Amino acid sequence: MSRFIKRLNRWRHSRGFGVHSPYAYQLVCEIVRPDPRYGYYGYHDIERAVMEAHVSSSTETRFIRRACLLLRCVANLRPASVWLPPSSASCMTVAVAKGGSCRLTAQVKDCELMVLSEPKAEDIDSMKRHITTHGHSLLVFGAGVGLATELSKVMTDGLILYGLSTLLAVSRPNMPLVLHAVNFS
């Protein structure tokens, strides 16, 4: 029964129901579950980059979804700088370029938005250091649900939106820490 209630709450929060913070509601509606009638100009470029990379059809959809989510994060959060792991797919670089006027940085300490895919145990400390700075954001693909709990121990204010395998954390001053389980599209 509790698994059903968790699924129901995740579904509700993914559509903005039960999300009382206006900022959190905005992020849910514009990043997590945007209106499908509207698209971003970069979606076509992302799809083209994935096609040119000649990835298998089984991973193609995952790459496109992740890159489109990154594009929406960059467009809505407007970070001055983004750090991507060196092994990132080209579609992720396209997503950052099309999302806004930010720069890619080679150093984690210099970025406002840190993006990780399939993080390892040794990455947790750098994520914790990064997210404790106000104005910094963290987008993690392949994150376990336990990562939200780990980050909530060090964050004093801001927002954590987490799904079964994706997490978006935003450190925002003067906003009590809020955690919401959502379904990322």
Task: Describe the protein's architecture and organization.
The protein is an alpha/beta fold. It has a single domain (2-181), classed as Rossmann fold, CATH 3.40.50. It is built from 7 helices and 7 strands, in the order H-H-H-H-E-H-E-E-H-E-H-E-E-E. The chain has helices at 2-14, 22-32, 42-52, 57-77, 90-99, 123-131, 146-154; strands at residues 81-83, 103-104, 113-117, 137-141, 159-162, 166-170, 178-181. The chain has a 7-stranded mixed sheet with strand order 2-1-3-4-6-5-7, with helices on both faces. The longest helix has 21 residues, at 57-77. It is globular. The mean pLDDT is 86.
Q: Over all CA atoms, what is the radius of gyration?
A: 16 Å
Which structural category fits the helices and strands?
Answer: alpha/beta
CATH hierarchy, class: Alpha Beta
Q: Report the biggest beta sheet as strand number plus sense, adding barrel if it closes.
A: 7 strands, mixed
User: What is the count of distinct domains?
Assistant: 1
Mean pLDDT: 86
Q: Whole-Å distance between the termini?
A: 25 Å
Spatial shape: globular
Number of strands: 7
Order of helices and strands, N to C? HHHHEHEEHEHEEE
**Percent strand:** 15-25%
The percentage helix is: 40-55%
Low-confidence stretches: none
Q: Give the strand line-up of the largest sheet.
A: 2-1-3-4-6-5-7
Number of helices: 7
| CATH topology descriptor | Rossmann fold
Task: Name the CATH architecture.
Answer: 3-Layer(aba) Sandwich
